[in-house]
Every structure is written in C-alpha cells, then in structure tokens.
Amino acid sequence: MQLRWRQIDPSARHTVKEVGLKSLGSKDTKAGLSAAQFVAAVAGAELPQNEWPELMVALVANVGEGTDSLKAASLATIGYICESDDPELRENLSQHSNAILTAVVQGARKEEGNLDVRNAAVKALSDSLDFVRTNFENEGERNYIMQVVCEATQAEDSRIQAGAYGCLNRIMGLFYEKMRFYMEKALFGLTIMGMKNPEEDVAKLAIEFWCTVCEEELSIEDDNSLVNMQSFTKVLTRLTKMQAQQEGATELRPYFNFSRVAAREVVPVLLELLTQQDEDAGDEDYNISRAAYQCLQLFAQTVGGDLVQIVLGFVEQNLRHDDWHRRDAAVSAFGAIMEGPDEKMLDPLVRQALPVLINMMGDPVVQVKDSVAFALGRICENVSDSIDPQANLPPLIQALFTGLSSNPKMANSCCWALMSIADRFAGDPGCQENALSSHFQDSVTHLLQVTER
Questions:
Q1: I want to staple 32 with a disulfide (CB 3.0 to 4.6 A). Which of 73, 359, 386, 407 is the partner?
Q2: Phi, psi values for residue 58, rounded to 5°
Q3: Could you tell me the pLDDT band of residue 244, with boundaries at 50, 70 and 90?
C-alpha cells in the first residue's frame, strides 16, 4: 500500500497532503483525529524515503502557534508517527528528536490551559521517548522532562494523570539507570498516591509502574549474573588483561534495589487493592485487583523472603473474614508469594496452610473457591515438595474435582491445579506406579463426567 501511494503523481500527493494538514485544524475533534491518523499513515510511507521533510517542521509549528484544536491534533499526529515499529521510519525520526521533544513538552506543561492539548501532549511524549535518548542523557533536559511528567500526575484531569503514569512506566523501562535521584525525590510518593486514586485507569497505571520496576530489576539481575559468570570463566581460563579488553568485557548494569526499599510501603497498598474485586468481571478483564495481584507476584519474585512476613500478617487477619472480598484477597495474596521466596522458608507455611485451603474449597462464594483453586495450583507448581502424598493428596484431589464439577467459572483454575499435581507426582520416566496411581481411575471418571455436561 505504501508503494502504491508513492507511485501516485507527486503533484496529486502534494495536494492531498496539504488538505490533510489543513484538516488537522478542524473544530470537530473526531475529524481532527482522523486527519492525524491519515497524516501519520502518509508519513509512514514517505519519511523512510526522505520525502515530506517539511512535515515535522509544520507539526512543531502548529503546536507552538496553532489553535487549541490544531495543537491537539498535531500532537496526536506526532504520537501516531512515533508509535511505528518501522526501523527506517524510526531512523528518520531520530534526526527530529529535538523538535519533537520541544513540541510535546511545551504542550504537556502545567501552564497549558487546554486540557485536550495537554492530554495529547502527554500521550505523544510517552510515544516519543525512544527518540529522545540523547536529550535524556543531558541532566538539565532530563530534569525538565521529569518535572513536566511529575506535574502531570497531579493534573485535575484523570486522562492526563493516567497518561503521566503511563509515561513514567516507559521512562522507568527505558532509563532505569537514570532514575535513582527521581525515585528518592518524587516518584516513590507520587506512585503510591496514584495507586490509591479512585479513578481506576489512573490507579492501574500507577500499579504498573511498580510492575515495571520489578521487571527491570529481575532483568538486571539476570544480565549481571551472566556477566559475573563470564568474568569467572575468564579468570579460570587465565585470560590476560589485553585479551579481555580485545574481547570487549561487559560491565555490570546499575542495580538500585528500588523494589526492596519500597516493599514495606507499596506492598500493604497492593494487599488492600486486592480486596477491590469486581464479581462481574470476565476472565479477560484487567481490573484493579488483578493489577495488584500481578504486581504482588513480581514483588515476590524480586524481593523474595523479605515479603513473606508483610503478606502473612494480611493473610492471617483476613483468611476467615466475614467479607468474602477480604477472604478472597487473603487467599490470592498467599498464592502470589509462592514463587520468589526460598522454598525452605515457604515449606512450614504451606504445610500449615494446605488443610485450611483445601477446606476453603467449600466456601459459599464461587470467587473465593476459584482463587483457592488457583492458589493450590501455585503451590503445586512452585512448592510441591511441601505436599505430603499420603496426608494431602487424597483430600486435595477430591476438593479440586468437586470444584471442577460445581461451577464452570472454576474450570480453568481447578484443571490447572490438577495438571500441576500430575506433573509433580508423575514419578521417574518409565515407572510403573506413582503417588497418583491409586487416584487414576477416579480422576478419569470425574473428567469424563464433566465433558458430558
């Protein structure tokens, strides 16, 4: 399609592009955004070919001097263009990084009175971060960008707040090594405040900021472990210093332990957010409680055993609570920490909890039973040595099959837990019997009965 576009007569293309740029200024917001999509599509065809060089200049000028509707549509256009994965287009955009940054930061400032313009600018800034790496290396420019984004988290418009937290997520993912100063001065407090925001979209993006922190730190740990192993290998093979330099020895990445430092403040907030379940949510719906659960899992993987006592206090307080939301949150929290902490630390906790959890498969609320089944699956997958084949397996398997038969909503969790049990207790390859042999006939019977429903 791009090739066919470029085969059109140049004068005709020029006329169409001019009309497209003029349409950005339409007072009808929908028309302006449609024009933005059109201009971005043409840019995807022409910029990689070094055509339409005046486009970015025009868009930047629109943001500086145009009407509010023209500013918003031009900023949206910049964002759409920057979203592209086309390597040739991205290479072309890098030469416009200063102009792009000037436009989006100008529109995102708190001094911008039009909320639609500011919202479009914050979105465009998030999309353009890949192209402003050089600017981010400059401390003065970086400080100003961070100031503008942090101020946007406090805007009166929830769209701008959400966009700002999304922007911070991308900044953390792209520039972790530059974030120590800003975490200490602002981001720690701002994101905790954002997690408590009554607007769901804002709270979810603030939660996702800490997901990004944990994911980055897990990645850095993996990378640094590899570097340490390579260094150890070089020592063993007695490489000379000159040889090591010639091979380009890799340096360790900075690691600031943001997640560990923040855990005692962030995790209690996540635990409370787990209680905000939506009982009508579908399996694919991503709501506050699910975002909090995902983040808690990542904290457990990153921080490990330091998280256990924080979570256990919440679990013990709420596991038998009259409010099903808190019972469900307690079960979910326990399951979330089954990967990360040392298994020796988890073993006595799991042995103590298993009878309670199995009994909770009879809870009157289906959401709680579903979460219990999923937590049991997490235990089977990650801490299976804590399951006693004689004492725990018979009631565990029975409870899961009862749950599977009782409600379709529980089918995925119950079947996954049963699969995890089968993987754990299958025994050595080729063995004639294992811990599940005595349960095999009943298991097949139960499964066949469910398929006939």
A1: 73
A2: -65, -40
A3: very low
Segments making up each domain of the chain, as ranges:
2-152
Residue from 21, 43, 41, 45 nearest 32 by CA: 21
- pLDDT of the residue at 242: 47
Q: Which helix or strand (DSSP H or E) is residue 51 part of? A: none
Summarised one tens digit per residue, pLDDT across range 107-156 is 999 999 999 999 999 999 999 998 888 889 999 999 999 999 999 999 99
- Find all residues with CB under 8 Å of 30, minimum gap 6, and list them: none
Domain 2-152 adopts which CATH fold?
1.25.40
165-204 burial, b at 16+ Cβ within 10 Å, e below that, comes to: bbbbbbbbebbbebbeebbeebbbebbbebbebeebbbbb
Amino acid at 314: F
372 φ, ψ (degrees, to nearest 5): -65, -45
- Rg of the chain over Cα atoms, rounded to whole angstroms, equals 27
Nearest to 333 by CA among 365, 357, 362, 363: 357
Q: Which amino acid is at 263?
A: A
Where are the alpha helices (H) located in 323-365, listed in sequence order?
324-336, 343-360
Q: Number of helices and strands (H, E) in the chain?
A: 24, 0
Its pTM stands at 0.89
- Sequential DSSP letters for 122-183: HHHHHHHGGGGHHHHHSHHHHHHHHHHHHHHTT-SSHHHHHHHHHHHHHHHHH-GGG-HHHI
Q: Which candidate, 86, 9, 100, 97, places its Cα nearest to that of 49? A: 86
